[in-house]
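agent: user wants the full assembly modeled, not chains individually. Plan: 1) parse entity lines 2) check alphabet per entity 3) run joint structure prediction 4) return tokens. Steps 1-2 passed, two entities, 447 residues total. Proceeding.
--- entities ---
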Amino acid sequence: MREEVVQHGAEEVHTSSFLHVIEEIPSINAPILGDIGPITIATSTVTVMLITLIFVALTIKVSRAKLIPSKFQVVLEMFYGAVADFITSIVGDKERAKKIIPYVGALMTYLIVANLLPMVPGVASFYVTGSEGQHIPLFRGATTDFNTTFGLALAVIVIMQFVGMKEQGIGGYLSHFIQIKQVIRGFRKSFGEGMVSIIGFFVGLIEIISEVAKILSLSLRLFGNMFAHEVLTVILLGAFAVAVPAIWMGMGLLVGVVQSIVFVALVTVYYSLVLKKEGKDAH
Amino acid sequence: MEQILTILGSVGFNWHVALANFINFLIILFILNKFFFGKLGKVISNRQQVIERGLSQASDAEKALASAEDEKKQIIHEAKKEGHVIVSEAQTQAENLAATIKSDAEKEITLRTEAMNHKEAELKTKVEKEFALRAPSLVATLYAETLKKNLTAEDNNALIASMK
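--- prediction returned ---
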């Protein structure tokens, strides 16, 4: 039972056997399917569109939600409750958590579906033929493409800025980054405090860089984990087609959920930092 | 910046694809935010309000029931008290009435007894008078009948005198 290698001139084409499923290791670059105006459609974009359709169907179902819930509504409400509890446990305050539950909850729902969708049997079976005749999987795992995770992290951080401005006021929020007022106030008090506030001014500028770094760290972490999982799945399928990949794919379910939770936990922490502090903690 | 783009390029970064995914995610976020989490949150919150209202109403009803129960006990207690007073008053009235009736009856009995005694005495006197009037003739008749002989008045008197 060895891997067959068929010679076609100088090319070696690896074919699958019963115990070895030979697939190409997915490229780090998402295969491009075409352009619609300025927007380029990659296979991961198609997956995101599929996810959008799933969510549209889900929201149609949810729009019929009633006070006396159906079994399906109970499941959705349990999920809502779990997400709300998770966010509240991080934020530490139910009222403050309520403000970000719709944003972070939507992110968590999206990530769980995006991470687990490729595990659904049949989804990975759709292929399109590329310009060079190669087979391209139509629904590439959304989070195994850096462009998706980058777009996701960018959207999350951009929305966070708006949430921060809504909570603290535009001037109040931006004063964390550009601390001119603090410098003037510091020098009015004393020279020493003025000098300290200049350090604060530079720290504020570094904060801007840290906001950009958040986009990169969030997107690279998620992409790295999910892409590595996919690559390892393909390698394991090539080595052992039976049993072992099943365990690894089972692990994939866990990885998908855990990575969603990690991403959401970090985003929740970022959001909780921009929320106005209330009660005893208010300053 | 160029270095960053080169590094990002090595992990497959493509501005156009990233933009498409960014827009897609914003659409998804809008849909989920508005129609999924928003709607579910509203339904759950409404249900919670209904439950809280129900619980509060149940608590109010329980309080009202307890108060009604207290009121009932109070009313029963007062009614019993009032009943006792009424019974006691009625008993006193009945006793008084009975005493009055008894006293009236005793008076009546006394009056009637006196009247009867008086009548009896009158009758006795009358009978005695009549007897005294009729006794001589009767005795004479008796003697005459006894002796089979008609006595005259002088005989009769003589006989009475001899009998004294």
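agent: reporting back. Chain A is about 65% helix and 10% strand. The longest strand of chain A covers residues 4-8.
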